[in-house]
Design goal:
The protein is α/β, with parallel strands linked by helices. Helices cover 41% and strands 16% of the residues.
Length: 335
């Protein structure tokens, strides 16, 4: 089983917790781990290796190339790390003999076997992923058809043979340049737009974002006004039997599990796995949030919850798509 992570030095600890959780819950499987490194220090590489030395795995570090050099201009990475673009470059970053990989974001826990993901028949598709809760106006602005869906690229199963044969990497790299600075989620938006007809959809339990842990089913529907939403039974089943928990940023969560005072419902589970790593005895990081996120969180405590959720629904369903549409008018190619 081939697993790919991508990280800068700041997220080396977070990567290691995810990796240890994967290895703990996939014992008996030989796991090849490819870490796309954006300046991970030698010290942190040693800590990653020491944290996983008791498991049946081989770890390979691959240097992340400068994405700006690849496209020929400075890339606006927003609030993210350049390593986010690594999933787009896997066709050339990884050896040609590797035919399939599971890419996983660092801010995750893996709590069950990954073999069903690894062995899944894609029915001729190149990519496998979990659908995200995105408003249809947002999708249409990107040029995503109503019969296709926005995905969360925090977990991707990629058929690299098809990825290379179809030339997807070259097409996606070109799109990074064309949409440079215009997209809210630069790599994720591009993947959803370009590969929309070539994606196999997995059940929710393989990438459960924070939204599902912090909101009721009715609140999710009201706050996100999504084009697609798993049934309430599917959501409840996934929460009770998760495979991959994804600790993405969400305005109703105070920080993240590697930070002090995080109130995510899976924080204690995360800390238990953190205790199995070389960072187990180091203090948690101070909680860090942007000013706008702090204001939203303050508002959520002052305003009645159901009123606040309705307001967020207007923001997600109307305001953000309008702002997005305005930005995309500046795109150098017709959307």
């Amino acid at each position: 089983m081939n697993i790919v992570y991508a990280s800068d030095n700041n997220f080396a600890e977070v990567l290691t917790v995810s990796l240890v959780s994967l290895l703990e819950n996939n014992k008996g499987q030989l796991v090849n781990v490819y870490i796309i490194s954006q300046n991970i220090s030698d010290d942190n590489k040693t800590r990653i290796e020491s944290s996983t030395s008791n498991y049946q795995c081989d770890i390979y570090f691959i240097n992340m190339p400068d994405i700006s050099n690849i496209i020929g201009e400075t890339v606006d990475i927003k609030r993210y790390s350049e390593s986010m673009f690594s999933r787009i470059l896997l066709g050339t970053l990884l050896p040609t003999e590797i035919e399939r990989v599971i890419y996983i974001d660092c801010d995750t826990l893996i709590l069950d076997s990954m073999m069903s993901l690894w062995k899944q028949n894609f029915q001729g598709k190149t990519l496998g992923a979990v659908r995200d809760c995105r408003n249809i106006r947002y999708n249409r602005n990107l040029g995503i058809k109503d019969t296709s869906y926005y995905i969360n690229s925090g977990m991707l199963v990629i058929d690299l043979n098809k990825y290379r044969e179809n030339g997807w990497q070259q097409i996606l790299v070109k799109a990074i340049k064309e949409y440079n600075g215009l997209l809210e989620f630069p790599d994720n938006d591009i993947i959803c737009k370009i590969l929309q007809d070539d994606i196999f959809y997995f059940p929710l339990r393989f990438n459960i974002i924070s939204l599902f842990y912090m909101c009721s089913y009715r609140e999710i529907s009201s706050a996100r006004r999504p084009q697609f939403l798993y049934t309430e039974a599917e959501v409840n089943s996934s929460l009770h039997n998760p495979c991959i928990v994804h600790f993405d940023t969400f305005f109703m969560v105070n920080g993240r599990p590697w930070m002090q005072n995080c109130d995510h419902k899976m924080t204690q589970t995360y800390l238990e796995y953190r205790g199995k790593t070389a960072w187990g005895n180091t203090p948690l990081r101070p909680t860090s949030m942007t000013k706008s996120r702090k204001l939203i969180q303050l508002a959520s405590k002052i305003i009645l919850r159901f009123v606040f959720i309705r307001l967020i629904g207007i923001l997600h369903g109307i305001v953000r798509p309008l702002l997005q549409k305005s930005r995309l008018k500046r795109c150098r190619i017709e959307i």
